[in-house]
Specification:
The complex is a heterodimer of chains A (257) and B (421). Chain A has 2 domains: 119 residues; 137 residues. Chain A is flat and about 60 Å long. Chain A is built from 8 helices and no strands. Chain A is mainly alpha-helical and 257 residues long. Chain B is an alpha/beta fold and 421 residues long. Chain B folds into 3 domains: 156 residues, Beta Polymerase, domain 2 (2-Layer Sandwich); 144 residues, NAD(P)-binding Rossmann-like Domain (Rossmann fold); 83 residues, no CATH class. Chain B has 15 helices and 10 strands. The radius of gyration of chain B is 32 Å and the shape is elongated. The two termini of chain B are 28 Å apart. The chains are: A mainly alpha (257), B alpha/beta (421). At the A-B interface, helix 5, helix 6 and helix 8 of A face helix 8, strand 10 and helix 13 of B.
């Protein structure tokens, strides 16, 4: 029965994504509907995850579909930290469609069911949670970066409606993206270390290699930001490049190997 | 209690007439006190006078030509122009007058919907006036309605002038303007106005550049900046966050060729150019540089026009808030009709309770202090509980058409007002 909670979550997330798109088209009032959609969906999905956790003896989201379900929840949770502030609400414009996509894929892959699962080691569970939390951070960071590029484009084009649809300032978006990415990088590093403790010689595969490349790329972008002052448009593009690796190359290598 | 309003505003009266009746806050306070004390019968008065309107609010327990009195006082202000003023003046009473005041406080009656100054002006007029129970409540509710309209809608958020639009745009680029460095190019009035708007938001003017260094230094000294000649501009711009330019130069003052090298060291750090000059001072090609944003007068006027359109759409929601507050006011005012009845009813009940206790005083003599207090509390509680529902029902009925009828029935049933007989 608890499996059915995926539907209110999906519908509410979908409603939020549409509401935010409506705000961009000038329907300001939809912003509040959007954030309520996120909250209701998050509550439903939390209920689903609790049910899954209670029925499992170990880490309940070990399959790729289960992991996507958990990742979607982490992304929405992270977004809610900022999204509750009206000015940051529109970060959801970039984040909520991703959350809907992740949850829909999780459902299609059977990752939203509630069934018993075998117990597993807690270190592997911690590894998975840390990696997923890192990817969730990168997703939100990419959302902020995307919003930065959108806002910068509006400013460059001298859009007359700039003050009617008020996004966070360029500096605020830049700082938000940097902070979230830094948190993601720390979580990814811890996750990789946790994974390495369980790694047998000769177990290295393409997914691990890409994960290390992701780690290196994000690390490089943040170091260059700190040391050389990489900011604004170029920093946003660097984050989007990193997110492309996470969102496209990582799944491809995972399924190919 | 009756409320009357007589006034003129920008809707009907031209400036030439409005200025005949415009008075400062001190004079408004004197007039309000004079109007309130003239009758000596609990008359209340508040005078609101701004550049867009002069309005006299009067209140008194009985009507007795209150509107005429407000009207006369307004025409007296106009002096010889009274005849021209009379046709364009408006007179409102009771709920209509209150609704008008609520709309004024919310900025819905202003030239620019949602303008911020009017709320402060209403507050000042109220503080300086001579309000009594009715005007006190009316003005407090009006101020509340004005605040709600601004907090719950975006009616007051968008800029309504070019300097304000420039400052608002800067806030879209920077996270707060505190300590942001502003460079002014040109020492004219337009630059100064824009600079002052930025200063009010925490920015600092670091440099004023002008063809005449003397004029630059004169303005710089009032803004806490330093004045420099135009040839030092590239260095000044390289360290700035916002550049505001408004010179009368016939050609470009800041060109892409001149500045691209100086700005290379900024590594994409945002820089906002605000060009208020016609012909333009700032090369539009500067917008091609990473982190540079260039806005000219046309762009800023388009932003203002768009945000005013936004204010008008927000005004619909603000009108809803004001209407809700006006309804609350009407309910409160209607409840005044039954307040004397409720007071009499409760007083009558208390007289009966005290008399009955006094009647059995001899039988209560042996009670201890604690037991006597318990009897007092018990009898008071019984009276309160018996009267609670009738009181609530009376207050509910007060806002309907049956309010007066209910009040009469209660008076008759309990013989209120017949005590002396």
């Amino acid at each position: 029965m608890a499996e059915l909670l995926v539907w209110p979550a999906l519908i509410a997330y979908g409603e939020a994504a549409f509401a935010y798109a409506g705000v961009v088209r000038g329907a300001d009032r939809l912003g509040r509907l959007g954030i309520w959609g996120v909250r209701i969906g998050w509550l439903a999905q939390t209920g689903l995850l609790v049910a899954q956790a209670l029925s499992s003896d170990g880490f309940a989201w070990r399959t790729w579909a289960g992991a996507l379900n958990f990742l979607a929840w982490l992304v929405v949770s992270g977004y809610l930290v900022w999204g509750c502030r009206p000015r940051y609400r529109l970060v959801g414009l970039a984040v909520m469609p991703v959350a809907v996509g992740l949850l829909a894929l999780a459902w299609a892959g059977g990752g939203t069911g509630v069934s018993e699962s075998d117990p597993g080691g807690w270190i592997l569970a911690a590894h998975a949670v840390l990696i997923l939390a890192a990817f969730a951070s990168f997703t939100i960071g990419a959302g902020a970066a995307l919003l930065y590029l959108l806002e910068e484009r509006r400013l460059k084009r001298r859009d007359a409606g700039l003050l009617r649809l008020r996004l966070p300032s360029l500096e605020a978006l830049d700082r938000m993206a940097a902070r979230i990415t830094l948190v993601g990088l720390a979580l990814l590093s811890l996750g990789v270390v946790a994974g390495l403790t369980q790694l047998d010689r000769g177990d290295v595969d393409a997914t691990m290699t890409v994960t290390v490349v992701v780690l290196a790329l994000y690390g490089l972008v943040l170091v260059v930001r700190r040391e050389v002052g990489l900011r604004g448009r170029r920093f946003a593009l660097g984050l989007l490049l990193g997110f492309t690796l996470v969102a496209i190359v990582l799944p491809v290598t995972h399924f190919a190997s | 209690m009756k409320l009357a309003l007589a006034g003129v505003s920008h809707h009907q009266a031209p400036l030439a007439l409005r200025e005949r009746v415009a008075i400062d806050l001190h004079a408004a306070a004197s007039l309000a006190r004079r109007l309130a004390s003239a009758d000596g019968d609990g008359c209340e008065a508040v005078v609101l006078s701004t550049c867009n309107r002069t309005e006299l609010y009067l209140a008194r327990p009985a009507d007795d030509g209150l509107t005429d009195r407000a009207d006369r006082a307004l025409l007296e202000l106009a002096g010889a122009d009274a005849a021209s003023l009379a046709p364009v003046a408006y007179r409102l009473t009771d709920e209509s007058a209150a609704l008008h005041l609520f709309r004024v406080a919310a900025g819905l009656d202003s030239m620019i919907p949602g303008e911020a100054e009017i709320l402060g002006q209403v507050r000042d007029a109220f503080t300086a006036g001579a309000p009594g129970p009715l005007l006190d409540r009316t003005f407090r509710m009006a101020l509340h309605a004005g605040r709600r309209a601004r907090v719950e809608t975006a009616i007051g958020e968008s800029p309504s002038s070019v300097p304000a639009a420039a400052a608002a745009l800067a806030e879209q680029v920077f996270e707060g303007l505190a300590d942001r460095k502003v460079v002014l190019v040109g020492a004219g009035r337009t630059s100064e106005l824009t600079a002052r708007n930025l200063l009010s938001r925490g920015a600092v003017v670091s440099v004023v550049a002008n063809r005449s260094v003397e004029r630059a230094e004169r303005l710089a000294s009032t803004l806490g900046a330093r004045g420099v000649p135009l040839d030092q501009l590239p260095d000044a711009v390289a360290g700035a966050d916002i550049v505001v330019s408004s010179t009368s130069a016939p050609g470009l003052v800041l060109t892409h060729a001149e500045l691209s090298a100086a700005l290379r060291g900024r590594r994409g750090r945002p820089l906002l150019f605000v060009d208020l000059a016609v012909p333009r001072d700032i090369d539009p090609a500067l917008a091609e540089l990473d982190g540079c944003f260039v806005y000219d007068v046309d762009d800023l006027e388009a932003v203002v026009a768009s945000s005013l359109a936004g204010r008008r759409s927000e005004a619909v929601e603000a009108e809803r808030i004001v209407s809700a507050e006006a309804e609350r006011f009407a309910s409160w005012r209607a409840s005044l009709v039954v307040v004397p009845v409720i007071t009499s009813l409760r007083a009558r009940a208390e007289v009966i309770r005290s008399a009955e206790l006094a009647r059995v005083e001899s039988r209560l003599e042996n009670l201890s202090e604690g037991e006597r207090a318990a009897v007092e509390a018990l009898t008071t509680q019984i009276v309160n509980k018996l009267l609670h529902l009738p009181t609530v029902r009376l207050k509910e009925a007060a806002v309907t058409a049956h309010g007066l009828h209910y009040a009469d029935v209660v008076r008759d049933l309990f013989g209120l007002g017949e005590e002396d007989e």
